[in-house]
Write a structure and sequence with these properties.
single chain; alpha/beta
Length: about 290
């Protein structure tokens, strides 16, 4: 019988979503294979109490500072099983999807993986929807992508590094530890993230992504960078063959230009960046 899988959920003021995330996992895990670790960090709400009340299966560890990286390291210290899933508190995924990826890692010799990403744009503006329509054509989406709120590592994959470093983008750090042949995307399993509702919220998120990418490139120049093959020039050629995307491409590139300017203000000051997220994705009941 396949073994247990640890799930580490960093949680900073997640009272609106943490119960739903945990119940979804527990309700879809009839064999109780998941070891659930909530790493609450710098919480000023009742995240800890809510998470602990969901089930005796939930192990809650607390970190005084509001730091996702500190939470990931504390969660790792408390977890006991491999493979190991690292899950943002607002991501929607079933236990079945996590277990399918974990079993594929164990059986297939891969070291990192994730289900297929879906983006919920139901409450997003048309301009945000256009962003994701164009983004779907990038190489990043097509190279066994992991991250964007969820990734799983085998024991060998987790051994590739010691502690999580203090970086803006932990998921990008992990992604670039492995080349695409080492990663696995399980296409018949999905996880869902919620798109920002407004273009301004999307642009703020994109600025942080760009800053995180620049930080990784600066601090870890030896990492794999095959995702850079999806350059703007290549993307433009793909868009040119799809007239339905000509109009969406205008705000797509415009928002990235603006996000790049905002990211430039973070350059060299990456360590000072605190939690930065779109609160609209934390709405209860999502």
């Amino acid at each position: 019988m396949p073994g247990p899988v640890s799930v580490i959920i960093p949680a900073h003021d997640e009272s609106g979503v943490i119960a739903g995330t945990l119940r979804r996992l527990i309700d879809t895990d009839p064999e109780s294979r998941l070891e659930l670790v909530v790493a609450a960090n710098g919480c000023s709400d009742d995240t800890v109490a809510i998470a602990a009340a969901v089930s005796p299966r939930v192990k809650v560890v607390e970190v005084a500072e509001a730091s996702k990286i500190a939470a990931l390291n504390a969660g790792d210290a408390a977890a006991t099983a491999f493979p190991r899933a690292y899950l943002d508190a607002d991501v929607r995924v079933s236990a079945g999807a996590l277990l399918a990826v974990a079993d594929a890692l164990t059986e297939g010799g891969f070291v990192a993986g994730a289900p297929r990403l879906e983006v919920d744009v139901a409450d997003a503006s048309v301009f945000v929807r256009w962003q994701y329509q164009v983004w779907a054509l990038t190489d990043y989406r097509g190279r066994n992508m992991i991250g964007s709120g969820l990734y799983l590592l085998s024991e060998a994959g987790r051994a590739r590094f010691d502690r999580f470093p203090d970086v803006i983008a932990d998921d990008l750090y992990v992604l670039r530890l492995f080349d695409s042949a080492e990663r696995l995307s399980v296409s018949d399993q999905v996880f869902v993230i919620t798109a920002p509702r407004t273009l301004s919220s999307f642009t703020r998120r994109q600025a942080r992504i760009i800053a995180g990418s620049e930080e990784i490139a600066h601090r870890f120049p030896h990492f794999h960078h095959e995702e850079r093959l999806g350059s703007s020039r290549v993307l433009i050629r793909r868009i040119a063959r799809r007239p339905s995307l000509w109009l969406p491409a205008v705000p797509y590139f415009g928002s990235r230009l603006l996000a790049g300017h905002r990211a430039a203000r973070m350059r060299g000051h990456w360590a000072s960046q605190a939690w930065n997220r779109d609160e609209s994705t934390r709405a209860p009941g999502l």
